[in-house]
Amino acid sequence: MKKISILFLLITIISCTKQTIEVKKQHQTEKSISDKDIETAVIYEANIRQYSKEGTFNAFTKDIPKLKKMGVKIIWLMPVFPISETKRKAKGDVFISDIKDKKERKKYLGSYYAVSDYKKINPNYGTIKGFRKLVKTAHQNNLFVILDWVPNHTGWDHSWIKNHPEFYTKNEKGEITDPLDANGKSMGWTDVADLNYNNKDLHKSMINEMKYWITNENIDGFRCDVAGQVPLSFWKEAIPLLRKEKKIFMLAEAWEPELVKNNLFDMAYAWEGHHIMNEIAQGKKTVTDWDNYIKKIDTTYNKEAILMNFITNHDENSWNGTVKERLGNASDAMLALTYLTPGMPLIYSGQEYDLNHKLKFFEKDSIPKKAGNTFVLLEKLGALKNNYPALNGGKNKAKYNRLKTNNSNILFFERTKNKDTIIYLANLKDTLEHFKIPENLKLKKDYLTNYNQDFSKEEIVLKPWEYHILIK
Predict the structure, then answer these.
(1) 26: in domain
(2) Rounded distance, CA 192 to CA 188, Å?
(3) What's the gap between Cα 196 and its chain centre?
(4) Domain with 267 in it
């Protein structure tokens, strides 16, 4: 009996080793994301829970060809991991444990960012097979998949709470705390436990968890939640080790310039640009503020740094309002600006379908699925981004040249690379605006309408928020 057991064990080990080798070989033959891909990429934030009525990987996977039509090259999956039951939030400062009605409790699914296990799949979304099918389908369509990673904290159910309490921040009483601000006060994220990166063993464990998804599931990188609150020393250690496994794309939910230096993160958030677009639309700021922002980028970030341009994302939609609520009639002009500005444009789940309500954050919700004007616009903008070098936004991005007009409410600039030139001309004001442009500038084709536009007149008039994308 012992001999049979040992033989069976050996066969099992050999079989598992064989499968691991085969998986690694398969991954090695697949295309990895390249600098060329990044230059022309549009990124899509996929909220699996809310993307469909089913809220599953399979329901999302069916629509990957639609994303490709919009020029999407990178799919960012919001956290796909199980969510902690302990201290699970229902709304605001209310935990599900505060709710007496059992039926009422069931509808609260908790925050995506309260992870209970970094190596497992949230069963509400499906199985690991469903996840693998999503990744495979994306790769077959020449798209890449990055996971939303939560390195700053875990849910209160995570095994590290019991097995490695030394990984966590503790108060004077020795109790594990939720994340605290610089003054030692709670940031309000009471459904998660704060990780302490002074512990070097935590570094090793976290890196191993991240490696798992690259080597076992062939993902193409990570979007790292609140990356600026994790010590830079960790990223300096982790990212080079992760890149030894595969060429990956790294997005930091942060603005700090040091994170996109020295081959660390590829891309950071254009938070300031996002806020300025909101404030211009609301009449609180002007084109001058935008010009100053562009100049600031040039002096603040190194040339290879990429910024992600956006008018919405999961936080903005759920907490600050829909695109129309924040941008009103300026919505399309600002959306186009995210594509024409140096960097990479973001589409958030539902944006393409004119999502007109705030998605519930802790409960099941869903986005509309009827394609309208925004879907058509995103298809056109995506094709422009994918195919014109003048909109390259990666490490070898196209130049941005501000063009002059005699009206401070008109934003007028060109992007150029090689012999390719594309121009953005917009009235970023809610009033009718008259202006002149240089006589020697010959502008012809309007990309969005496909009509030849005559801008040789002495005076040009643009309606409120009217914009043009011109191919010179």
Answers:
(1) no
(2) 10
(3) 25
(4) 33-398
